[in-house]
């Protein structure tokens, strides 16, 4: 295995981050730390319980350029080659993403999980938008991050059926269960050099 050192970025409760961490620990994948942009994020408590290194930097009055440079300094110090976003709520700049561009793969080594079958329903409310639209089938997408909003090359997608008696909450629960299955699969693919992207 080539250098696949990776970090997980999360802003909130961190259920996907915990699933990825447990999986990485089980299979001895080179997870170096979990980063959060919020000092009180629930994900940090989860990492304490798992014994996973973590840190947080809040933007406060820093410019976006200075903030991202501060994060990049830490990533370089730990020799991080891949980033997995797990509910990370900040948009990464083009200059940040360029630091992780892989000319062989022709994509950025930054991965995100999105709660819809992209390209349908991009943005932060994937489940809600899909549910309100009345879809009969929805799903989850793991994709590489580019300069757009959920527009990067797709690595993996899986679907679930919406039942007639589903509420938005039960619909989201189905999706989250699928997220917890699909993201470790994506981690496996990357760690084992089995990357194949969908064309949109």
Helix and strand topology:
Blueprint: E1 6-9, H1 15-27, E2 31-36, H2 42-50, E3 54-56, H3 64-77, E4 82-85, H4 94-98, E5 101-102, E6 107-108, E7 110-114, H5 126-133, E8 137-144, E9 154-161, H6 168-191
How many DSSP H or I helices? 6
- The number of distinct β-strands equals 9
Strand proportion:
15-25%
Could you say what the CATH topology of the largest domain is called? Rossmann fold
The name of the CATH superfamily of the largest domain reads: Formyl transferase, N-terminal domain
Mean pLDDT: 95
Question: Helix- and strand-based class?
Answer: alpha/beta
**Which consecutive residue ranges, at least 5 long each, have pLDDT under 50?**
none
Describe this structure in words.
The protein is of the alpha/beta class and 200 residues long. The chain folds into two domains: 1-90, Formyl transferase, N-terminal domain (Rossmann fold), CATH 3.40.50; 113-200, Formyl transferase, N-terminal domain (Rossmann fold, 3-Layer(aba) Sandwich). It has six helices and nine strands. It has helices spanning 15-27, 42-50, 64-77, 94-98, 126-133, 168-191, and strands at residues 6-9, 31-36, 54-56, 82-85, 101-102, 107-108, 110-114, 137-144, 154-161. A seven-stranded mixed sheet has the order 3-2-1-4-7-8-9. Strands 5-6 form a two-stranded antiparallel sheet. Helix 1 runs parallel beside helix 6. The radius of gyration is 17 Å and the shape is globular. The mean pLDDT is 95.
């Amino acid at each position: 295995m080539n250098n696949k050192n990776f970090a997980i970025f999360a802003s909130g409760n961190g259920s996907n981050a915990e699933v990825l961490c447990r999986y990485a620990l089980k299979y001895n994948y080179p997870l170096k730390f979990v980063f959060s942009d919020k000092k009180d994020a629930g994900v940090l408590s989860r990492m304490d319980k798992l014994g996973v290194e973590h840190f947080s930097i809040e933007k406060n009055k820093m410019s976006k350029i200075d903030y991202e440079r501060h994060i990049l300094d830490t990533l370089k110090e730990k020799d991080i080659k891949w980033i997995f976003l797990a509910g990370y709520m900040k948009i990464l700049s083009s200059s940040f993403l360029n630091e992780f561009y892989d000319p062989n793969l022709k994509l950025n080594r930054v991965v995100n999980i999105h709660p819809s079958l992209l390209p349908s329903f991009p943005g932060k409310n994937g489940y809600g938008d899909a549910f309100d639209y009345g879809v009969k089938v929805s799903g989850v997408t793991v994709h590489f991050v580019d300069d757009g909003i959920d527009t990067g090359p797709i690595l993996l997608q899986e679907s679930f059926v919406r039942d007639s008696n589903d509420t938005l909450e039960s619909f989201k629960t189905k999706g989250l269960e699928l997220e917890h299955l699909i993201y470790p699969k994506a981690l496996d693919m990357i760690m084992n050099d089995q990357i194949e992207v969908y064309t949109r």
